[in-house]
Description:
By secondary structure, the chain is α/β, with parallel strands linked by helices. It contains 11 helices and 17 strands. The protein has an 8-stranded parallel sheet.
Amino acid sequence: xxxxxxxxxxxLIDQHRVSRxxxxxxxxxxxxxxxxRPHTKTHKSPVVARWQLAAGAVGICCAKLSExxxxxxxxISDIRIPYPLHPAVADRLLALxxxxxxxxIVDHLDVARGWSRVLSEAGMTVDVLVKIDxxxxxxxxxxxxxxxxxxxxxxxxxxxxxxxxLLSHAGQAYxxxxxxxxxxxxxxxxxxxxxxxxxxxxxxxxxxxLSAGATPTARFSVSQPGLTEYxxxxxxxxxxxxxGLGAGTLDDCALTVLARVVSAPAPDRVVLDAxxxxxxxxxxxxxxxxxxxxxxxxxxPDAHGAHVEQLADPSLTxxxxxxxxxTVRVTGNQALVPGDLVRIVPNHSCVVSNLVDQAWLxxxxxxxxxxxxxxxxxxx
Length: 380
Ligand SMILES: Cc1ncc(COP(=O)(O)O)c(C=O)c1O
């Protein structure tokens, strides 16, 4: 089967680009002496995780237990969950920890004590990291040493928990205004973790791991001293937001949505068969965010219907989504007619992956094979 024969809309993964993205970060982290532990929230596919592990990743991250269960079922043996799990899910965590090496984060003392009780009663010890808020103001304890050090010291003393380090996610990078901003965020994140590590060491608490991770800051974080692990997720596919933040180019974006023109009601308007149920309603982010719901690429098969040219077409703006329709504003001479195919680089590829059971892996000859997204929809 080739791209042009697929039912649309379809989520396509370019094999060459995904391999190149995996190799680039694997090389950059290896050269910096950092262990790479990709966050699988972007692809939710054990197939893709295995490529990352084959390229040198030490393990993976999952956002949720149900994702982790899918990856453990697929035989992946080292799974970190950088999510504030509550002991309400203790039975599942214990079951997972009995069959794979699992670690997770804590950022609340009552919760940490709850886990300590559950794990001690089960006669088990599980690795944990303390989550530090480095400026995103989502999860994590505040980094001020006068409060953070007592917290970390208290966690270090809890039976059933083996405190292995600190973990952060500079999600504020998605709101950076410039390259300089991103560089500063990466520097400050690493400096914050190092300072806490030193302050805890002075109290006799060793924190061997300093784990950071976010695709926009990755290119600056890899050269920061002290970090031991990097947990990028989106780097595997990239998307229009990452292009807007300088983390890659449109030619690096491995995930695109194949859509067909289904209506051309006016010279300045065409309608595609991919709406918010495929592309999500996420807006663009970046230093100067683009308008609309993605970049439209022209899709031109050659005389044999095989070779596919992909060019960003600035005359096409994906300005409105309904559930099953994308309304594209056309400026200039539009040559699109019903039946034509286009590809869309979405604003946020992680959400798109989660909306389909299966993507299509496209090889350099434009042949496609099914790529199951086994952990799609795993949110518990
Ligand atoms: C805790 C945590 N770590 C790592 C990541 C990976 O970030 P990115 O997809 O920007 O690489 C995320 C993404 O949401 C995250 O929440």
